[in-house]
């Protein structure tokens, strides 16, 4: 399986948001991430910074408005 680890970049420091993420969806409320067995989590005010498929890590960063 190809589950990802989702991190949030906060001023150069990376904070774990969720592990074993199987689905990511961008909608009007923000970015919705979900695993196979947990309820989805919506993260508002962020954008995808990087996706590293080899290490299975996705990094989010705050949107600058």
What do these coordinates show?
With 65 residues, the chain is mainly beta. It is 0% helix and 65% strand. The strands form 2 sheets. A 4-stranded mixed β-sheet has the order 2-1-7-6, with no helix packed on it. The model has no long low-confidence stretch (mean pLDDT 92).
Write the layout of secondary structure elements.
Layout: E1 4-10, E2 13-21, E3 23-27, E4 30-34, E5 41-43, E6 46-52, E7 57-62
Parallel strand pairs: 1-7
Antiparallel strand pairs: 1-2, 3-4, 4-5, 6-7
Key terms:
single chain, about 60 residues, four-stranded mixed beta sheet, 7 strands
Summarize the structure.
With 65 residues, this protein is mainly beta. Helix content is 0%, strand content 65%. The protein starts with a strand and ends with a strand.
